From TrEMBL:
Domain of life, per lineage: Bacteria
PANTHER family recorded: 2-DEHYDRO-3-DEOXYGLUCONOKINASE_2-DEHYDRO-3-DEOXYGALACTONOKINASE (PTHR43320:SF2), SUGAR KINASE (PTHR43320)
InterPro entries, per database record: Carb_kinase_PfkB-like (IPR052700), PfkB_dom (IPR011611), Ribokinase-like (IPR029056)
SUPFAM superfamilies with a match to the protein in the record: Ribokinase-like
Entry annotated with the keyword Phosphoprotein: no
Keywords annotated in UniProt: Kinase, Transferase
UniProt similarity note: Belongs to the carbohydrate kinase PfkB family.
Name of the molecule in the record: 2-dehydro-3-deoxygluconokinase
Pfam family, one: PfkB
Biological source species: Algoriphagus winogradskyi
Carbohydrate kinase PfkB domain boundaries: 4-303
Amino acid sequence: MPHRIITLGEIMLRLSTPGYERFINTRSYDVIYGGAEANVAISLANWGESAAHVTVFPTNDIGKAATNTLQFAGVDTSLIQFNEGRMGIYFVENGAMQRSSKIIYDRFDSAFSNLNPDDFNWEKIFEGADWFHWTGITPAVSQSAADLCKAAVNAASRLGVKISADINYRRNLWQYGKGPMDIMPELIKPSHLIIAGLTDFENCMGITDTDYLQACEKAKTMCPSLKYVSTTHRDSISASANDLNGVLWNGETMLESKTYEMTHIVDRIGGGDAYMAGLIYGLLHFDDQNALDFAVAASVLKHSIPGDANFVSVDEVSQLVEGKNVGKLLR
């Protein structure tokens, strides 16, 4: 029986320069629709779970196209609302070798940022739901988005739905008069699982420890429902070559995955979302160590796929965990 998982967040129009062209000389852009939370939903739907995404799209053909993208991926789009406004855009220039990738955002005054929180019936949205996922991007976009996220978190907690949060501190997004410490601690408090690095802990929870285990333990004292804390460690040798591993604290033990050497990276955007989806899926199906290993392997495979979403199967992820069929020509 598939688990019912609800995700909440803005989806944007991604315009990427073809191949490794630069912004200053490209004559065209490749079009993709993506968002951190929706990327999680796509992975989970692709792995056989019942995933639905909550967002607001503009009432035009761009909103319809974004909806079609989610439907193609198997995500339930029945909870999406449409309003007047625009879709946020972000531009991507893929780096290579020692040249870094670049992202330029144009997301001000989007339909999502201007949503009305009262338009969403969370009691109905969470009917039959097992899990709710949000990220720190949503409450950073606008006051109305923060209010919507608060209503969703409160409803999920009240209804006994497990909550995961990718804290994902984005300094440049908090532009509407509130800072993360005004909003985030209360949102994080009822979480079952969070992904957070030391920077996230400091800026969104006021935890200034430089030891990750101590930071996790302090987070637990602030969040009584918290069972898991996780993060990834990335060593960027170049834009094309990174090493990646992950850790998962389960309240007793700090588990660690193997380290993967990733060379010839195709697209690293969405790698963290693939990791989050892998953790959710893994914790629903496996023990803690295997859940962590599955999550890291899912993230590694995402680095081989263009676009935001991680279109890989459970078998492909599991085979990478087991070291089978790595890089082979499969017929």
